[in-house]
Amino acid sequence: MYRLRRMEISADMLYKAKQIRGFCHLYDGQEAVVVGMEAALEQSDSVITSYRDHAHFVGRGGTVLEVFAELMGRVEGASKGKGGSMHMYRRQANFFGGQGIVGAQVPLGAGLALAHQFRGDGGVAVTMYGDGAAQQGQIFESFNMAALWDLPCIFVCENNHYGMGTAEWRAAKSPAFYTRGGDTMPGMSCDGMDVLAVKQAFAFAKQYVLEKGPLILEMDTYRYHGHSMSDPGSTYRTRDEISGIRAKRDPIERVRQLLAANGLAESSELKAIEREVKGEIDGAIDDAKAARLPADEELWTNIWRAPLGATMRGIESSHKQRLPS
Amino acid sequence: MYRLRRMEISADMLYKAKQIRGFCHLYDGQEAVVVGMEAALEQSDSVITSYRDHAHFVGRGGTVLEVFAELMGRVEGASKGKGGSMHMYRRQANFFGGQGIVGAQVPLGAGLALAHQFRGDGGVAVTMYGDGAAQQGQIFESFNMAALWDLPCIFVCENNHYGMGTAEWRAAKSPAFYTRGGDTMPGMSCDGMDVLAVKQAFAFAKQYVLEKGPLILEMDTYRYHGHSMSDPGSTYRTRDEISGIRAKRDPIERVRQLLAANGLAESSELKAIEREVKGEIDGAIDDAKAARLPADEELWTNIWRAPLGATMRGIESSHKQRLPS
Amino acid sequence: TQMTIRDALNSAMDEEMARDETVFIMGEEVAEYQGAYKITRGLLQKYGPKRVKDTPITEAGFTGIGVGAAFQGLRPIVEFMTFNFSMQAIDQIVNSAAKHHYMSSGAVTCPIVFRGANGAAAGVAAQHSQCFAAWYSSVPGLKVLAPYDSEDARGLLKAAIRDPDPVVFLENEILYGEPFPVDEAVLDKDFVVPIGKAKIMRSGSDITLVGFGKMVGYNLKAAELLEQEGISAEVLNLRSLKPIDRDAIAASVRKTHRVLSVEEGWPQSGVGSEIISIAIEECFDDLDAPPERVTGAEVPMPYAQNLEAAALPTVEHVVAAVKRMMGK
Amino acid sequence: TQMTIRDALNSAMDEEMARDETVFIMGEEVAEYQGAYKITRGLLQKYGPKRVKDTPITEAGFTGIGVGAAFQGLRPIVEFMTFNFSMQAIDQIVNSAAKHHYMSSGAVTCPIVFRGANGAAAGVAAQHSQCFAAWYSSVPGLKVLAPYDSEDARGLLKAAIRDPDPVVFLENEILYGEPFPVDEAVLDKDFVVPIGKAKIMRSGSDITLVGFGKMVGYNLKAAELLEQEGISAEVLNLRSLKPIDRDAIAASVRKTHRVLSVEEGWPQSGVGSEIISIAIEECFDDLDAPPERVTGAEVPMPYAQNLEAAALPTVEHVVAAVKRMMGK
Ligand SMILES: Cc1ncc(C[n+]2csc(CCOP(=O)(O)OP(=O)(O)O)c2C)c(N)n1
Ligand SMILES: Cc1ncc(C[n+]2csc(CCOP(=O)(O)OP(=O)(O)O)c2C)c(N)n1
Ligand SMILES: [Mg+2]
Ligand SMILES: [Mg+2]
Fold first, then answer.
1. The Dehydrogenase E1 component domain covers which part of the protein (chains A, B) (predicted)?
2. What is the mean pLDDT of residues B38-47?
3. Does C303 touch chain B (CB under 8 A)?
């Protein structure tokens, strides 16, 4: 978690230093959800989430270097520079991104679950969306089909209580997101700031969806940063609210205190870990900065898996690009 | 109701005689819903429904002639021949059709309600959809916004138990459609074959939505015909099921028996009414057949309300159509 | 032998399902009802409900589910009852299916087919008559196919199902029941038509008639009539709208020096506008007449029979345009 | 005086809301947050929550609600945070808003404006960079506008709000903060720019550069550079993409004998393909060179700065294309 925290804070600095462009959505505050989840899942299970995806990518085994390199549009990045902040993938670990369109990842996630069921491979799919996304109609459509077909799908609402500048109660008549399956699907709520609770919830959920069909897991969590880099994050909520959560519910502090209270780690050990992580992150930043931009020819790769020798048009009529066959 | 019944049965015959083209969805069996509803509403309230709209059009004051003429694509038709079976409107009575895209009418209906609320004119909007449509995501999106904004909107699920060939329980994990508002919105169920119950339900609902915000009304009803003219309607349900409903729950028979049992009408009086209605319908058919096709110039009218002198392209380059300014 | 388009599509799916067990079909009424237009007839009975799935009427949701299943390695065939309803799902087709291979630099693939009836049918009015050929074929990352005859329907659909990329497959309701002659070769289990290649249906020397789907038939009819007037028309069946076969269009126009595009969709930024542009870009100096397009009239489709007829191209329009272009 | 596009749009809405109390705004973050790009700044404070409505992130639903309210006589302005998200609602825009006046033979009207940022921004990758100009402008029943400068933004938006038909209003995120000089006349409360008319931004005699939105600026820049090389370029700002001003395009091309269309969207069946087709249809014999188009490259938008730059037209592309067309 500390690694994810440092990574996001460094991304913030890099953005402000104009090393990163476009949209960039940070995850600090919410780390326990990804860490707890990954403690309960296998990489043979599938995960898909929204644009706020840096931590999910690392949770699936991606490196911090790959995150920074992607943010800087480098070829060493998670998506070799073509995706950017919102679109990181780790196909070999069944991580399907990194989705920019609010709500769209939810049916996609149900489809991942359908594939696991179809093959009978024992895998489950986790499809993660925000409290703002939770009103999207395609989510209800997905609930219904997932329930009709008993898909092994865990629908995870990461409720950080705001969708951009809109508080949950202004977006949802019923902001108890774990009940939004109505008669269609059961749900449960979990303290998303408590990594151990999250792990437990996912362990239960995985078992449940394999045996009984889909389930909603609502994670009560909080984002410290603004929605994205252009949002100071303090016009629609009070600074007191933010600092209160930091003081009382921070997921990293909670673990630190648990370790200390139970005598599981000396403060010096933790400090050493922190130092090590800082070193790793700083090294990753340097490596990312040193990494190459994609070659210009990459503009024309990956349009299709089978480009069939197609002729594409460049910017000018004089530029016709023949793709490989 | 008997008028609507005769109208639909005649439309069936006209279709088979190739006087009507394309899609044609009949309403026989469901008549009590429209008749009961209109007994409780004013024409200053708004109504919108799906493609199965002949009866709704007549319920809002349209004539049987206008229905037949529209079905035959005549200029005397409800939409002057441009809409056809699925697209009949009666703007002066706040009937907004006649919508071909499953589910799309539901947010539209919520928007009608928004306008009534915005103007504070005391009107409500009724937005009607089927059991098949009830899974559409935009319906849930509409529920949420209608509830957040307290819109005077009655969401009416006309549950005839099949969406084309799909029984409700195959389309919906939870086919109790009046509960589909979950925590967002209350709902109630009503016997849609009992015209008096329907009237009562709408009278209650109108009052309720004006005072407390939106409501779901599920109407338990049945369509006797197939989904549309190409569907015999008997492959996915048994003939016994259909004849059982006809025998036990027919909305017209029910009223006939009520009138008889309570001595409110002699059977001869009812026969006379039936004869009169038959005459009216037969006359309407003759009149519709005699009606004119739209003039060829109508191809180019009503694209826009303000066509601004635009030049449109005809089929060939040589045909450019200058619209009025 | 003769084969209807319906049987061509049905047999293509049947054989590909037999060949590859990751292929499955989903959509409204595809299973128990056997397809609103009976294209999936018999498949539920043969392959069972796991591989022939009825969906609720929730296009956005089931399209997204199909795309997700394709990401995870299955090969879904998603049927839209008609492509008009694909507008509810177009975000999933474009943003999810078409763009992921690129955004992930090749990590995520999406082998899926979206198929169904496209364009005008008969008497179904404005909301059920739209042609989506131009929209989908504008999107890099999609492949877009439109069969004309049973050979196309079989060979292109089999190619689409085997292809590793998302394919939009535009059928025509009016042609479903139409029989076309097919060769022995077409009946082969491994008969596929190459994606991205147009086909010369009839060779000619005076003008090239470019079309896809049903309009290829009109163009063939027109070519016959024109022959009687001494005009030799070449008929090009595009088959693929994305990628579009620029080379074949250019080669034909270089030969005939004239080109007319025929489509039922709306004119503005339509397929015809692209054909004209390709002709101009590739062979301006070879042209003996301005390239032209015959299109649907620029109106929402009216219901009344006379108006509907006036909104759609006919063989006569093609013949008249050609004669004008030939100065006759 | 100078005015940014943001202020032009903001003042247009403000004044029209003051003028007509049936005008209201709805969309994500338009009220309390004052707009993701602050286009609606101050309007909640001035007109209150009844007329400036924050919506949940449910494009299909709130677009349908807007259209329904317009059917019933209100004049909604629906903001899409960007037009990329309008794909979730495109069925409501096309099937509900655009087609109802026609389907009802004029009974139902739909005075509504759909507005927001369209096309490429900076560093936002494939799902957030699509241009929808060609798609929407293909649909009869819609009006489609694209402002370039602050005069356009103010005058076209006011015209759109007053218009009785559904208008798709395509803005450009990158230009929101850009100041443009405006005349006194533009500041008038009743200043409107006529829908359906293109504007000559700069007169010239050798070639016509056709564009809309941000590309008009590129074309003006290119025209300056070309002047230094002795080439006189006329710059036509389309303003309206539907209806498109065929007469203005034809008149300009008849004068200059050459035409180049410039857009950021994809080429196939794009706006440029229509401009080429119009030029061919209207003035083939007047042409001294084949009409051409500069477009976005035919790829989903990549994120990396160098690739993104390589995917989009620049002033240099325009200059190079013109020189080639002039044989220089
Ligand atoms: C369909 C769509 N509409 C709007 C947006 C713009 N947008 C991006 S993120 C966001 C807020 C989402 O909030 P939430 O679901 O709570 O997720 P969080 O950002 O809190 O993780 C919005 C409106 C989008 N990307 N897609
Ligand atoms: C978005 C969309 N998808 C599919 C269709 C095709 N279709 C027309 S009616 C229908 C069944 C609807 O059933 P239901 O909502 O129960 O209404 P009913 O016909 O029973 O009145 C379908 C699938 C459509 N018109 N629109
Ligand atoms: Mg949130
Ligand atoms: Mg039904």
1. 1-294
2. 98
3. yes
The answer to whether A10 and A281 have CB atoms below 8 angstroms apart is: yes
Nearest to D120 by CA among D190, D223, D218, D17: D218
Residues for chain A: how many in total? 325
Find residue C168's DSSP bridge partners: C114, C144
Establish whether C59 is a catalytic residue: yes
Pairing outcome for strands B153-159 and B187-191: unpaired
Catalytic residue among D128, D224, D257, D317: D128
Domain that holds residue B275: 2-322
For the purposes of burial, counting CB atoms within 10 Å of the CB of C194, is it exposed (0-12), middle (13-18) or buried (19 or more)?
A: middle
Residue reference for tokens 């509830």: B147
Its pTM stands at 0.98
In the prediction, which pLDDT does C328 show?
A: 87
Which atom of ligand 1 sits closest to the CA of residue A168? 16
Phi, psi of C82, rounded to the nearest 5 degrees: -145, 160
Cβ pair B109, B139 in contact under 8 A: no
Residue D54 has phi, psi (to 5 degrees) of -70, 135
Are C253 and C281 contacting, i.e. CB atoms less than 8 angstroms apart?
Answer: no
Indicate if ligand 2 lies below 6 Å from the C-beta of B56.
no
Pairing, β A46-50 against β C167-171: unpaired
Q: Which residue has the tokens 């708004």?
A: B46
Q: What is the largest CA-CA distance in chain D?
A: 60
Q: What is the pLDDT of residues D271-292, one digit of tens each?
A: 999 999 999 999 999 999 999 9
- D253 lies within 8 A of chain C by CB: no
CA D84 to CA C135: how far, in whole Å? 14
Q: Which amino acid is at C55?
A: T
Residue A129: which of A151, A150, A108, A152 has the closest Cα?
A: A108
If you average pLDDT over residues D100-105, what whole number do you get? Answer: 98
Q: Do residues C125 and C90 lie in contact, with contact meaning Cβ atoms separated by under 8 Å?
A: no
List, in order, residues 6 or more apart from B2 with CB less than 8 Å away: B252, B273, B274, B277
The rounded distance, in Å, linking the Cα atoms of B51 and B39 is: 22
**Which of D28, D29, D57 has most ligand 1 atoms within 8 Å of CB, for mutation?**
D57
Radius of gyration of chain B (CA): 21
Q: How confident is the model at residue A207 (pLDDT cuts 50, 70, 90)?
A: very high
Fill in the amino acid letter for C323.
K
Domain count, chain B: 1
Q: Using pLDDT thresholds of 50, 70 and 90, give the confidence band for residue C104.
A: very high
pLDDT of residue D328: 87
CA-nearest residue to A107 within chain B is B137
C16 catalytic? Reply is no
Q: Which two tokens stand for residue D173?
A: 């995120």
Q: With contact defined as beta carbons under 8 Å apart, do B159 and C80 qualify? A: no
How far, in whole angstroms, is CA A124 from its chain's centroid? 17
Q: Give the H/E segment covering residue A228.
A: none
Residue from C57, C59, C90 to probe ligand 2 pocket by mutation (most atoms less than 8 Å from CB) = C57
Q: How far apart are CA A44 and CA A168, in angstroms?
A: 33
Within chain B, strands assigned E span: 46-50, 95-99, 125-130, 153-159, 162-163, 166-167, 187-191, 215-220, 311-313, 320-322
A152 lines ligand 1 (CB under 6 A): no
Query: What's the gap in Å between the CA of A93 and the closest CA on chain D?
Result: 23
Shortest distance, CA D109 to any CA of chain C (angstroms): 15
What is the CATH classification number for the domain harbouring B214?
A: 3.40.50.970
**Do the beta carbons of residue C213 and residue C170 sit within 8 Å?**
yes
H-type alpha helices, chain A: 2-16, 31-40, 54-59, 64-71, 105-119, 137-148, 168-171, 195-212, 239-249, 251-261, 267-290
- Report the 10 Å Cβ neighbour count for B296: 11
Show residues of chain C in contact with B102, CB under 8 Å.
57, 85
3-class SS of residue C241:
strand
